[in-house]
Amino acid sequence: MAPRPKTRDRIIEASLALFNAQGERNVTTNHIAAHLGISPGNLYYHFPNKQAIVAELFGQYESRVDQFLRLPPAREIQVQDKALYLEALLDAMWAYRFLHRDLEGLLDANRELAQRYQVFAARCLQHAQAIYRGFVVAGILVMDDAQTEALALNAWIILTSWVRFLGTVSAGADQLDQLQLRRGIYQVLALESGFVAPAAREAVAALQREYFVELEPLLQVPSS
Protein backbone atom coordinates (compact mmCIF):
# COMPACT_ATOMS: atom_id res chain seq x y z
CA MET A 1 0.00 0.00 0.00
CA ALA A 2 1.35 3.43 -0.98
CA PRO A 3 2.08 5.78 1.92
CA ARG A 4 -0.51 8.46 2.60
CA PRO A 5 0.54 11.86 1.18
CA LYS A 6 1.80 14.34 3.73
CA THR A 7 -0.71 16.91 4.93
CA ARG A 8 1.23 19.75 3.32
CA ASP A 9 1.14 17.99 -0.06
CA ARG A 10 -2.55 17.24 0.34
CA ILE A 11 -3.25 20.93 1.04
CA ILE A 12 -1.41 21.97 -2.12
CA GLU A 13 -3.15 19.34 -4.25
CA ALA A 14 -6.61 20.17 -2.91
CA SER A 15 -6.05 23.91 -3.21
CA LEU A 16 -5.05 23.58 -6.86
CA ALA A 17 -8.14 21.50 -7.64
CA LEU A 18 -10.47 23.90 -5.82
CA PHE A 19 -8.87 27.04 -7.29
CA ASN A 20 -9.12 25.60 -10.80
CA ALA A 21 -12.71 24.47 -10.37
CA GLN A 22 -14.15 27.45 -8.49
CA GLY A 23 -11.69 30.30 -8.95
CA GLU A 24 -9.16 31.36 -6.32
CA ARG A 25 -11.32 34.28 -5.16
CA ASN A 26 -14.18 31.93 -4.26
CA VAL A 27 -12.11 29.52 -2.15
CA THR A 28 -11.05 30.28 1.43
CA THR A 29 -8.67 28.44 3.70
CA ASN A 30 -11.72 27.20 5.61
CA HIS A 31 -13.06 25.69 2.37
CA ILE A 32 -9.75 23.94 1.78
CA ALA A 33 -9.59 22.60 5.33
CA ALA A 34 -13.19 21.36 5.18
CA HIS A 35 -12.54 19.71 1.81
CA LEU A 36 -9.62 17.80 3.35
CA GLY A 37 -11.39 17.05 6.62
CA ILE A 38 -8.74 18.82 8.70
CA SER A 39 -8.97 21.72 11.13
CA PRO A 40 -8.12 25.27 9.98
CA GLY A 41 -5.38 25.25 12.61
CA ASN A 42 -3.79 22.22 10.96
CA LEU A 43 -3.79 24.04 7.63
CA TYR A 44 -2.30 27.19 9.19
CA TYR A 45 0.49 25.06 10.68
CA HIS A 46 1.68 24.47 7.11
CA PHE A 47 0.59 27.73 5.43
CA PRO A 48 -0.05 30.99 7.30
CA ASN A 49 -2.59 32.22 4.73
CA LYS A 50 -4.02 31.61 1.27
CA GLN A 51 -1.42 33.83 -0.38
CA ALA A 52 1.28 31.42 0.80
CA ILE A 53 -0.56 28.56 -0.91
CA VAL A 54 -0.90 30.56 -4.13
CA ALA A 55 2.82 31.39 -3.99
CA GLU A 56 3.67 27.70 -3.60
CA LEU A 57 1.51 26.78 -6.58
CA PHE A 58 3.04 29.54 -8.68
CA GLY A 59 6.47 28.15 -7.80
CA GLN A 60 5.41 24.75 -9.13
CA TYR A 61 4.11 26.30 -12.34
CA GLU A 62 7.24 28.41 -12.77
CA SER A 63 9.51 25.40 -12.30
CA ARG A 64 7.49 23.33 -14.77
CA VAL A 65 7.72 25.96 -17.51
CA ASP A 66 11.43 26.58 -16.87
CA GLN A 67 12.16 22.88 -17.41
CA PHE A 68 11.03 22.77 -21.03
CA LEU A 69 11.32 26.32 -22.36
CA ARG A 70 14.89 25.82 -23.52
CA LEU A 71 16.68 25.12 -26.77
CA PRO A 72 17.58 21.43 -27.30
CA PRO A 73 21.01 21.10 -25.65
CA ALA A 74 22.69 18.68 -28.06
CA ARG A 75 21.04 19.07 -31.47
CA GLU A 76 19.66 21.60 -33.92
CA ILE A 77 16.05 22.60 -33.39
CA GLN A 78 13.45 21.01 -35.73
CA VAL A 79 9.96 21.85 -37.01
CA GLN A 80 8.34 19.23 -34.77
CA ASP A 81 9.84 20.97 -31.73
CA LYS A 82 7.25 23.71 -32.26
CA ALA A 83 4.44 21.37 -31.24
CA LEU A 84 6.43 19.99 -28.31
CA TYR A 85 7.03 23.46 -26.90
CA LEU A 86 3.48 24.66 -27.40
CA GLU A 87 1.79 21.54 -26.07
CA ALA A 88 3.98 21.55 -22.97
CA LEU A 89 3.30 25.23 -22.32
CA LEU A 90 -0.46 24.97 -22.81
CA ASP A 91 -0.59 21.84 -20.62
CA ALA A 92 1.20 23.72 -17.84
CA MET A 93 -1.06 26.73 -18.19
CA TRP A 94 -4.14 24.52 -18.04
CA ALA A 95 -2.88 22.55 -15.03
CA TYR A 96 -2.53 25.88 -13.17
CA ARG A 97 -5.32 27.67 -15.03
CA PHE A 98 -6.55 29.58 -11.98
CA LEU A 99 -3.39 31.70 -12.27
CA HIS A 100 -4.46 32.91 -15.71
CA ARG A 101 -8.17 33.34 -15.04
CA ASP A 102 -7.58 36.28 -12.71
CA LEU A 103 -3.86 36.98 -12.98
CA GLU A 104 -4.20 40.73 -12.49
CA GLY A 105 -6.20 40.23 -9.30
CA LEU A 106 -3.71 37.74 -7.89
CA LEU A 107 -0.78 40.03 -8.59
CA ASP A 108 -2.56 43.11 -7.22
CA ALA A 109 -3.17 41.26 -3.95
CA ASN A 110 0.42 40.09 -3.52
CA ARG A 111 3.30 42.44 -4.34
CA GLU A 112 5.94 39.76 -3.82
CA LEU A 113 4.13 37.43 -6.23
CA ALA A 114 3.82 40.29 -8.73
CA GLN A 115 7.57 40.83 -8.63
CA ARG A 116 8.21 37.11 -9.07
CA TYR A 117 5.84 36.98 -12.03
CA GLN A 118 7.52 39.95 -13.72
CA VAL A 119 10.89 38.20 -13.50
CA PHE A 120 9.35 34.94 -14.70
CA ALA A 121 7.60 36.57 -17.68
CA ALA A 122 10.77 38.40 -18.70
CA ARG A 123 12.72 35.14 -18.51
CA CYS A 124 10.11 33.31 -20.59
CA LEU A 125 10.24 36.00 -23.27
CA GLN A 126 14.03 35.78 -23.37
CA HIS A 127 13.86 32.01 -23.79
CA ALA A 128 11.12 32.32 -26.43
CA GLN A 129 13.29 34.73 -28.42
CA ALA A 130 16.23 32.33 -28.14
CA ILE A 131 14.04 29.50 -29.42
CA TYR A 132 12.82 31.56 -32.35
CA ARG A 133 16.42 32.52 -33.13
CA GLY A 134 17.17 28.80 -33.10
CA PHE A 135 14.50 28.29 -35.75
CA VAL A 136 16.14 31.05 -37.81
CA VAL A 137 19.58 29.44 -37.51
CA ALA A 138 18.08 26.08 -38.48
CA GLY A 139 16.65 27.61 -41.67
CA ILE A 140 13.01 27.13 -40.60
CA LEU A 141 12.08 30.80 -40.06
CA VAL A 142 13.38 33.97 -41.71
CA MET A 143 13.27 36.96 -39.33
CA ASP A 144 15.40 39.81 -38.09
CA ASP A 145 15.88 40.60 -34.40
CA ALA A 146 12.94 43.04 -34.22
CA GLN A 147 10.59 40.50 -35.79
CA THR A 148 11.84 37.78 -33.46
CA GLU A 149 11.12 39.96 -30.45
CA ALA A 150 7.65 40.87 -31.71
CA LEU A 151 6.75 37.27 -32.54
CA ALA A 152 7.86 36.01 -29.13
CA LEU A 153 5.79 38.70 -27.42
CA ASN A 154 2.68 38.02 -29.54
CA ALA A 155 2.95 34.28 -28.93
CA TRP A 156 3.23 34.89 -25.17
CA ILE A 157 0.15 37.13 -25.21
CA ILE A 158 -1.90 34.48 -27.00
CA LEU A 159 -0.76 31.62 -24.80
CA THR A 160 -1.24 33.43 -21.51
CA SER A 161 -4.70 34.57 -22.61
CA TRP A 162 -5.89 31.28 -24.11
CA VAL A 163 -7.23 29.71 -20.92
CA ARG A 164 -9.11 32.91 -20.09
CA PHE A 165 -10.53 32.98 -23.61
CA LEU A 166 -11.77 29.40 -23.28
CA GLY A 167 -13.42 30.27 -19.99
CA THR A 168 -15.43 33.01 -21.68
CA VAL A 169 -16.67 31.01 -24.67
CA SER A 170 -16.83 27.35 -23.62
CA ALA A 171 -19.07 25.38 -21.32
CA GLY A 172 -16.41 25.48 -18.61
CA ALA A 173 -15.69 21.76 -18.51
CA ASP A 174 -13.12 20.73 -15.91
CA GLN A 175 -10.87 19.09 -18.49
CA LEU A 176 -9.37 20.80 -21.51
CA ASP A 177 -10.30 18.71 -24.52
CA GLN A 178 -8.05 18.03 -27.48
CA LEU A 179 -9.89 20.41 -29.79
CA GLN A 180 -9.38 23.35 -27.46
CA LEU A 181 -5.72 22.50 -26.93
CA ARG A 182 -5.00 22.05 -30.63
CA ARG A 183 -6.69 25.30 -31.61
CA GLY A 184 -4.56 27.19 -29.11
CA ILE A 185 -1.43 25.70 -30.63
CA TYR A 186 -2.65 26.52 -34.12
CA GLN A 187 -3.17 30.17 -33.17
CA VAL A 188 0.52 30.52 -32.38
CA LEU A 189 1.59 28.58 -35.47
CA ALA A 190 -0.54 30.93 -37.56
CA LEU A 191 1.47 33.89 -36.27
CA GLU A 192 4.58 32.43 -37.88
CA SER A 193 3.13 31.84 -41.36
CA GLY A 194 4.70 34.91 -42.94
CA PHE A 195 8.18 34.06 -41.65
CA VAL A 196 8.53 30.43 -42.77
CA ALA A 197 11.54 29.73 -44.97
CA PRO A 198 10.71 28.25 -48.41
CA ALA A 199 12.47 24.97 -47.63
CA ALA A 200 10.37 24.50 -44.47
CA ARG A 201 6.97 25.54 -45.81
CA GLU A 202 5.73 22.04 -46.55
CA ALA A 203 6.65 20.72 -43.11
CA VAL A 204 5.22 23.76 -41.30
CA ALA A 205 2.02 23.63 -43.36
CA ALA A 206 1.62 19.96 -42.44
CA LEU A 207 2.05 20.85 -38.77
CA GLN A 208 -0.56 23.60 -39.07
CA ARG A 209 -3.02 21.20 -40.69
CA GLU A 210 -2.42 18.75 -37.87
CA TYR A 211 -3.43 21.30 -35.25
CA PHE A 212 -6.15 23.18 -37.08
CA VAL A 213 -9.72 22.72 -35.88
CA GLU A 214 -12.83 24.69 -36.70
CA LEU A 215 -13.50 27.54 -34.30
CA GLU A 216 -17.24 26.87 -34.07
CA PRO A 217 -17.00 23.86 -31.69
CA LEU A 218 -15.19 26.09 -29.20
CA LEU A 219 -17.83 28.82 -29.31
CA GLN A 220 -20.58 27.11 -27.38
CA VAL A 221 -23.38 29.65 -27.68
CA PRO A 222 -26.39 28.76 -25.50
CA SER A 223 -29.56 28.08 -27.46
CA SER A 224 -32.35 30.62 -26.95
Shape, per Cα inertia axes: elongated
In round numbers, the mean pLDDT is: 89
In CATH terms, what is the architecture of the largest domain? Orthogonal Bundle
Distance between the termini: 52 Å
**Order of helix and strand elements from N to C terminus:** HHHHHHHHHHH
Number of domains: 2
Uncertain runs are none
Instruction: Tell me the helix content.
Output: 55-70%
| CATH fold assignment of the largest domain | Tetracycline Repressor, domain 2
Looking at how many chains there are and whether they match, the oligomeric state comes to: single chain
Number of helices: 11
InterPro entries: Homeodomain-like_sf, HTH-type_TetR-like_transc_reg, HTH_TetR, TetR
Organism: Pseudomonas songnenensis
Protein name: TetR/AcrR family transcriptional regulator
Keywords: DNA-binding
Structure description:
- By secondary structure, the chain is mainly α.
- It folds into 2 domains: 1-48, Orthogonal Bundle (Arc Repressor Mutant, subunit A), CATH 1.10.10.60; 50-218, Tetracycline Repressor, domain 2 (Orthogonal Bundle), CATH 1.10.357.
- It contains 11 helices and no strands.
- It is elongated.
- It starts with 6 loop residues before the first helix and ends in a 13-residue tail after the last helix.
- The model has no long low-confidence stretch (mean pLDDT 89).
